[in-house]
UniProtKB/TrEMBL annotation:
<dbReference type="GO" id="GO:0016197">
    <property type="term" value="P:endosomal transport"/>
</dbReference>
<dbReference type="InterPro" id="IPR016024">
    <property type="entry name" value="ARM-type_fold"/>
</dbReference>
<dbReference type="GO" id="GO:0005770">
    <property type="term" value="C:late endosome"/>
</dbReference>
<feature type="region of interest" description="Disordered">
    <location>
        <begin position="390"/>
        <end position="434"/>
    </location>
</feature>
<dbReference type="InterPro" id="IPR019155">
    <property type="entry name" value="CLEC16A/TT9_N"/>
</dbReference>
<dbReference type="GO" id="GO:0005794">
    <property type="term" value="C:Golgi apparatus"/>
</dbReference>
<dbReference type="InterPro" id="IPR039272">
    <property type="entry name" value="CLEC16A/TT9"/>
</dbReference>
<dbReference type="GO" id="GO:1901096">
    <property type="term" value="P:regulation of autophagosome maturation"/>
</dbReference>
<feature type="compositionally biased region" description="Low complexity">
    <location>
        <begin position="410"/>
        <end position="421"/>
    </location>
</feature>
<feature type="domain" description="FPL">
    <location>
        <begin position="65"/>
        <end position="226"/>
    </location>
</feature>
<feature type="compositionally biased region" description="Polar residues">
    <location>
        <begin position="390"/>
        <end position="404"/>
    </location>
</feature>
<protein>
    <submittedName>
        <fullName>Protein TRANSPARENT TESTA 9</fullName>
    </submittedName>
</protein>
<dbReference type="GO" id="GO:0007034">
    <property type="term" value="P:vacuolar transport"/>
</dbReference>
<dbReference type="Pfam" id="PF09758">
    <property type="entry name" value="FPL"/>
</dbReference>
Amino acid sequence: MRMRKEIDLFPLEIELIYPSDLTNHYLKFLKLLTMLADIVRFLTDQLMKVQTVNDVNKDFVIEALRSIAELITYGDQHDNAYFEFFMEKQVMGEFVRILKTSRTLIISLQLLQTMSIMIQNLKNEHAIYYMFSNEHVNYLITYSFDFRNEELLSYYISFLRAISGKLNKDTISLLLKTENGEYLYMYIAHLGRSSFFPLYIEAIRFAFHEESMIRTAVRALTLNIYHVGDDAVNRFVSRAPHADYFLNLVKFFRDQCIHLNLVVSNASKNLGVESTSTILSAVDEIEDNLYYFSDVVSAGIPDVGRLIMDSVLRLLIFPLILPSLRIGAVKEPSLGAVTSLYLLCCILRILKIKDLANTVAAALLYCPDIFPQNSEAELNGNMLGHGSSDAASQYSDENNCTSESDARSSELSVLTSSSSLNHPPNGVPGHDCGSTQFAPREALLSFVTSGDDVQVSGSLSVLATLLQTKELDESMVDALGILPQRKQHKKKLLQALVGEDSGEEQLFSSESSGVKDGISGELDIYLQKLKDYVGISCASPEVGVSPRVHRFQVLDALVSLFCRSNISAETLWDGGWLLRQLLPYSEAEFNSRHLRLLKDSFRNCTNHVIEETRGTWSDLLVTTICDEWRKCKRAIEASSPRKDPKFVLLPPNKSASDENASCESSIAAGERMCETVKVFVLLHHLHIFSLGRVLPDQPPVFPAVDIPENSRAKNADLNPPGVKPNTEINLVDGMPCRIAFERGKERHFHFLALSMGTSGWLVLAEELPMISRRGIVRVAAPLAGCNPRIDDKHPRWLHLRIRPSSFPFTDTPKYGAHGKVKSKSLVDGRWTLAFRDEESCKHALSMILEEVKLQSHEVERSLRPLL
């Protein structure tokens, strides 16, 4: 142990003496190097004398291995003589011999750590070449360690990963098995012999280990190998039997998707922070797998990208994801609708393979007969547990008996030209759930028009993802009905310029036949590929249907969405973003029915806003509208949606309105007001947009007016910005009262209700002893929402509700850091004021009601241009 302490001091000594003086200290440095070299020689000689490792000498062997690794690493960067000695003495061979003669676990641990340290820190190429040659490293890779010990397995995986970090086109050949000096890959690539590349073979044995750190290290190792680009290795990993690794990866991924669906289903029954964290953890695993697939594909190994794509389609998308959008009851394992919508978004967003994206788009348009045929098949909508397949059967009854709030959405119509194509008169894809010709694309639109909030959000996420997937051909996006208007014009213009009759006619005509605007050749190509995948013909209910009809179906579904009252404002904003992407600068696509429905919905929402001018938070209504106006404009004009698709999986946060169902609280009223304002702002934007006008940056509202001379605020000498504690005011309108903020401690105040513009306050002022009718404000609370009430048994008592002066939930997301649910524990305060007599109490009540009325009128006046 004394030798160990001396060695630890050497780097510090070197740092202090070199290279401060190139005359004296350089000689000292050379002397130090010589001394270090002598230590290496001593340790090596002593190590060679060890014939068997036992309890007596194991501590020395461990210390020798550790010290040699440190000294060789240091020497590699300062003096080549160190490693030359290492090679001359065949120290690698000694390491292997020590491992063979030892049956002690700690020796195996130390040797693997020693090798990892040396390989990671060696910079000299010749040193790395030596380490990988002579088959010593391959021997250690294939050595039969006892992996039942978790620590040993961790050291072993680190050792393999350290090797992979030094691989390049020159060094990787040193780890390939040879015979008589010739590489065997010309034969082994065809025979599939596993001994060709031990590093890869041994590593993927642990690719699906239960410990996530092990799996991550193995994936990093394989990516290092794939990105080397060695032809022999590429052929080895992409052919049987080793290509099964990629198939097993997709199977493992499929099992994780099924597990995610189970977690989401259980979380809907047990709301809480733990449920949310469990979902987010499962989501991280899903996305990590997809990013790994993407990295593997980006390595460019022939056939591997195709193998991964085929496996994802055959094992996940065709049998599980797409059927879950339309089948009410499927055999386990199954996925819920919302889980499938999320997975579809993730796969398209992360796994950027052109053929995969276009094949999925084709599958959304056409119905492969591989989907289970069932006369009672139905849309997987309105399912409990955010897509739990167990509750899917409830949708049929709910679909036949739609709520009154959704009745208007079912009145939407499509172009009269589409009626001959056997589409229903409302323009939204038919809900003939018993038909085997029902396409998944129609399920997405059906969710938008009649699904619950989570299903709407998931469907909009899928449509937005498809719209932003650059790997999708424009013809496929057009066939789905979501090609943006500017791209449609560009496409028609190009067709007209190259002399295509259909393009020229479409450019100068608003009407076009279904044949001339029909499905393009690219769509037919991917339909044929889809046919090849499933092995049988695909039912195609929309062959010959114009993409223009599909565009109007999407537009009809979005207009229907904006007319629904049971969908959250956040989800409606997502629909607004999608609409602005499809129609960025023109109102030409809206027909008279669209305009009427949007106008009616806007009028209804305007009435709700007018009600809020007399509501609990009327003093903040104008400010909230201005803030939400800017946010909504940024949201719908942004380049991408605001919300990550994974949030559709999280259980809904319990709102204050749910928690206070029995007694209305100001917090619940505030949440409702904010929700109303968000919907109003969006519909106002759409109203302006539908008229072809430019959307202003600020809402049109009237500025504040001067305080009337005869107002109580003027009598109290109140000046902008309003009441603050310790402000001196006039108590000419004050009413003496008593209140106890603590049990048994009553205090005497003068009570005032004051309004100034859109603001208002309940004031408790303490009269100044030396100045008559003047006082200091001690307590102030918002006037709006105070709900004054005289006590039934004590007519001199006035009860007031005291709400917060600002929103406690403004800009607060449902989920905080790490997905933890943010709870709201705020409750309303209460004042009980005791006046001298009944008349004083009634006068105070009358004063409050008068000031509340003045405040409400001023709020309504400010919003008059907007309303």
